[in-house]
Amino acid sequence: MTRPVPATRRVSAVFSHIAAPNEGGVSFLDLLIRRFPYHTPEEWTTRILSGRVRLDGAAAAPETSILPRMVLEYRVEDYEEPAVPLDFREIAMEGDLALVHKPAGLPVHKTGKIFVNVLANLYRAFKQDEAWTPLNRLDVETSGIVAFARGREALRRFSPGTPGTQWTKTYLAVAQGVLREPGVHEGPLAEWPEHAIRSRMRVHPDGKAARTQYAPLETSGDKTLVVVRPVTGRKHQIRAHLADLGFPIVGDKVYSLDGRYYLKRLEGELDADDIAALQAPHHLLHAVSLDVRDAQGAGIAGIDTFLPDGFLKFFPNALELIPDHPTS
Predict the structure, then answer these.
(1) What pLDDT, on a 0 to 100 scale, did the predictor assign at position 117?
(2) Does residue 59 form part of some domain?
């Protein structure tokens, strides 16, 4: 099941957003600017005043203060959505569970700029069934397995936070540098509000507990193919922990090369020289295996062998190095 990469797509539809607790207190206009950057502040103001953007079903002024759980509805008209790769694949299905390969560059859920071509929508359309919902998410640039559940009962039983449910995840990463020994990183991870890259995490004693197991599989020149098992599930955990060890993931715009290419991308598209400096168009992190079990031991497991080309560029035999039972 391979799908071509489309040209940009024009979108006309109505979407909604429920204000999160941390969005309370901001103005209606500021929320739109933060969450949906595909329009300028002036364009959003025009849309608010014309009634095309509504708050709890009614027109509201741009300065209206947002309360948590308020429902924002907005009409997207003739918007040119950025192109994304569409070559997702269903890897396995057991009852109301499925494991799906996500290519690097495809969002799992809608973002500020991409509404239609996201994995959640594409998989529902493929199944012709709106009841399928992602159980986990991967960063846009991370490839690999995303688990889906069909219906509320399966979603409840197999969600990562459900008591008794066990998720065993294994990743492959191409790290910059020669990593010689396996180990465990247990540095707590915290937000870094002073950093120029607001999404960047750091190891900090005030952070949340995090534990990452890692081991080298093969080295090639100044790079290492690493198998990684995140025991916890913190934001950017693998990327931040490997970078903290001195082995940032190749192509990582946030955690390698001082983040300068992430900052440059905020101003526009990266060029060929930038990609050459990064050594990959996206970070080389792949969710290679997943085993999901409920409290009774029922569930699903699978391995995603659809490695991005970047892995094979540096490690041509990477597929042969994937452990037979990477989740054990």
Answers:
(1) 87
(2) yes
Cβ distance 256 to 249 under 8 Å?
yes
Contact 286, 305 (CB under 8 A): no
Instruction: Kindly report the CATH number assigned to the domain that includes residue 247.
Output: 3.30.2350.10
Predicted confidence at residue 276, as pLDDT, reads 95
For CA atoms 124, 130, 131, 134, give the dihedral sign. positive
Residue 226 belongs to domain spanning: 89-321
For residues 105 and 252, membership in a common domain is answered with yes
Residue 323: both structure tokens together: 């452990």
Q: At what angle do helices 41-49 and 28-35 cross, to 10 degrees?
A: 130
* pLDDT, position 8: 53
Amino acid, single-letter form, for residue 210: A
In eight-state DSSP terms, residue 197 is S
Kind of pairing between the strands at 285-293 and 201-203: unpaired
30, 139, 252, 324: the catalytic one is 139
Q: Into how many domains does the chain fold?
A: 2
Q: Are residues 50 and 173 in the same domain?
A: no
Do residues 108 and 26 both lie within one domain?
A: no
Q: What angle do CA 91, 213, 180 make, to 5 degrees?
A: 110
Question: Which residue bears the tokens 């080309």?
Answer: 309
326 within some domain: no
Asked whether residue 114 is domain-assigned, the answer is yes
324 catalytic per annotation: no
Give the number of other Cβ atoms within 10 Å of residue 112's Cβ. Answer: 13
Which residues in the chain come in under a pLDDT of 70?
Answer: 1-13, 38, 77-78, 324-328
Closest Cα partner for 325 from 306, 301, 308, 307? Answer: 301
Residue 194 and residue 317 in one domain: yes
